[in-house]
Amino acid sequence: MTLIQTDPPLAEPVTLAELKAHLRLDATDEDGLLEGLIRVARTHLEAVTGVALMSQGFRLALDDWPQDAVIQLMRTPVQTVDAILLYDADGVARNLDLSGLLLDGIAHPARLVVTQRPRPSQPINGIEIEFTAGFNSINEVPPELKRAILIHAAHLYEFRGAVSADMQPASIPAGYDRLIAPWQRRTL
Questions:
Q1: What are 66-83's pLDDT values in tens digits?
Q2: Tens digits of per-residue pLDDT, 133-169?
Q3: With contact defined as beta carbons under 8 Å apart, do 79 and 9 qualify?
Q4: Sign (positive/negative) of CA torsion 112, 118, 123, 126?
Q5: For the chain, what are the domain ranges?
Q6: How many CB atoms lie within 10 A of CB 46?
Q7: Which CA distances in Å does 111 have to 69, 75, 76, 105, 121?
Q8: What is the signed CA dihedral for 155, 57, 179, 165, rounded to 10 degrees?
Q9: Which CATH number is associated with domain 11-52+138-183?
Q10: What's this model's pTM, rounded to 2 decimal places?
């Protein structure tokens, strides 16, 4: 099972102005750095929670259908299932009919039931499910997740000289885990 982001979000859930107000900064000379820190904080939050914060496209590749009928899409909230592709032995894709799908887009992770389940002929990544996940607007993003991004980006900004941008996130600020706890994936 492999999850690939196909379309990045068109906007970040926290604006540059919000982060600058949080940091009490007026100068514009570090705007590029701050925008990068917002992106790093969002990406980290999405990775540890499985929540797509802004609308973005994904492709889930499967070798075969799961034993039970439920497919976990690894992201939430899922807005739409855009396509299900089944590959033959020559690597040619065939679109499956989407009419018989049952989607629980707000489950954590989102769940999908596909009634038509023909076997793929390609032994590796023979099934691809393309879907759109995330909140439609900044206003829909839960406030505790926006706050987590703000404090994480501020923390990264505080240590900007000690750790290079390509090595971020180097650490997590105090209180971050409590903010995101209700959104984290729990496994046994």
A1: 988 899 999 999 999 999
A2: 999 999 999 999 999 999 999 999 988 777 666 666 6
A3: no
A4: negative
A5: 11-52+138-183, 56-133
A6: 21
A7: 10, 9, 9, 6, 24
A8: -10
A9: 1.10.3230
A10: 0.87
